[in-house]
């Protein structure tokens, strides 16, 4: 997202206000079939995903409607994070809980390969570095940032070489989110059952 904090009134009018005029596109989110109408230029400016979808030769570009299906794994997570960023940019808070719920369902419910079920990063199996980098552009305290950080707690506490070791160091915002979720998690655990419950601290 471009930094416009130092822009003049003229620059602001050209770079931002113009985005609030023009054609709209529709986003349909399945399986509930919820449909949202949004400004095309505003949506595409800060999302490579939606830009490629609506300005290329894809079906969505011709029909100006995108249907976000329930699909497994990485692509699904990236899609809902992109939607969260757009909603955050437009200060639409009503979508936050639903988007976070969808991400949690993917991380908890989709089938993790047998070989990965016992390792310390199983809650982050479907998460990637790109997901982390995308999410930190959301506002501080955003529920999607909290979900990604909470999913990283077990690996962070149990393995110094956990999946997002580098991201915690390179992206201080993500590191702070993880530490905050660690603090919350430890505060909720009964000391005598801490080891037992740690496996599902995220859930």
Automatic annotation (TrEMBL):
Instruction: Give the BTB domain ranges.
Output: 23-86
Q: Which InterPro entries match?
A: BTB/POZ_dom (IPR000210), SKP1/BTB/POZ_sf (IPR011333)
The molecule here is called: BTB domain-containing protein
């Amino acid at each position: 997202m471009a930094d416009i904090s130092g822009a003049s009134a003229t620059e602001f009018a050209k770079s931002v206000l113009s985005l609030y005029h023009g054609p709209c596109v529709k986003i349909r989110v399945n399986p509930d079939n919820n449909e949202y109408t949004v400004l095309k230029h505003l949506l595409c400016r800060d999302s490579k995903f939606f830009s490629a979808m609506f300005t290329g030769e894809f079906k969505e570009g011709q029909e100006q409607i995108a249907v976000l299906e329930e699909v497994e794994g990485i692509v699904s997570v990236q899609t809902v994070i992109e939607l969260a960023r757009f909603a955050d940019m437009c200060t639409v808070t009503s979508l936050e809980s639903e988007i976070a719920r969808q991400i949690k369902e993917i991380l908890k419910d989709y089938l993790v390969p047998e070989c990965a079920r016992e390792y310390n990063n199983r809650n982050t199996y479907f998460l990637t570095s790109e997901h982390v980098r995308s999410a930190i552009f959301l506002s501080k305290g955003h529920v999607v940032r909290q979900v990604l950080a909470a999913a990283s707690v077990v690996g962070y506490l149990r393995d110094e070489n956990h999946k997002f070791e580098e991201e915690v160091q390179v992206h201080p915002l993500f590191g702070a989110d993880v530490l905050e979720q660690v603090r919350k998690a430890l505060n909720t655990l009964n000391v005598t059952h801490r080891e037992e419950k740690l496996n599902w601290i995220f859930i």
